[in-house]
Hints:
By secondary structure, the chain is α/β, with parallel strands linked by helices. About 50% of the residues lie in helices and about 10% in strands. It has a five-stranded parallel β-sheet with strand order 2-1-3-4-5, with helices on both faces. Helix 1 (about 20-35) packs parallel to helix 8, helix 3 (about 65-80) runs parallel beside helix 8 (about 190-210) and helix 9 runs parallel beside helix 11. The chain is globular and about 65 Å long.
Amino acid sequence: MTTEDVALRYRSLDTWPSSEILEAMLERNFSALAAVRAALGPLERAAEGAAARLREGSGRLVYAGAGTSGRLAVLDAVELAPTFGWPHERLHYLLAGGEGALVRSAEAAEDEAEAGRRRVAEAGVGPDDVFVGVAASGRTPFTVAALEAARERGAFTVGLANNPDTPLLAAAEVGVLLETGPEVIAGSTRLAAGTAQKVALNLFSTLLMVRLGRVYSNLMVGVQASNAKLVRRAAEIVAKISSCPLDEAERALEAAGGDPRLAVLLLEGRDPDEARAALQAAKGNLREVIG
């Protein structure tokens, strides 16, 4: 596994000046971005395939991983609700060691393949779901077993790994290789490998939300206006789309219960019930409703 190699480039790192250590780590993060660029094709196939599965029915987006990879997967998942209005009930994540592993390492849990299979069964993963497994090594028993079980149960599966020719990439319908190579500190995949995973997950989930109509133009019309900053942002989005004064957008947003998409339709003069029905028929896709 190249992520475990010891790079001679960073030999005697502990004796370097602090500025040179920082430069070296930043350099490796730049190369992590290059690894993501090389994976844009598979990321596109993953997002398009996921959108096709989730567009119909009420399937869930399920993330799985262990350690750093698992925590990055969960981070991507939990941000989809406030940013894009993706329903909480259509999100699920399987972290080796359970939710406690988010804040306290549970490294031994990654070796429990049977736990991965059991958690997939307990979650009721099925043909309507999209399953994303993330592992820097591509060999983590928990994650590989969970993804294999999800695919056996009919889910659309995506695997992200930082090493080529790994079980996770082979098991997934779409394998996304993020080949970041050796780390500045040998084996510490929270560094370049983690950077590549975070960026790749951002690209995947954001493109997925765009394809599911959670974005209009380049505006996040599904945003959940749950605090003062987001209420302001939602009103500004409505004002931009409707070309109306901000105070008028704020009133429409309040009448729409905080939903920017409904507010836009109300400002068009639509009947509230008709507007809600139109959005529901279009699965929340504002573009389909107003053209």
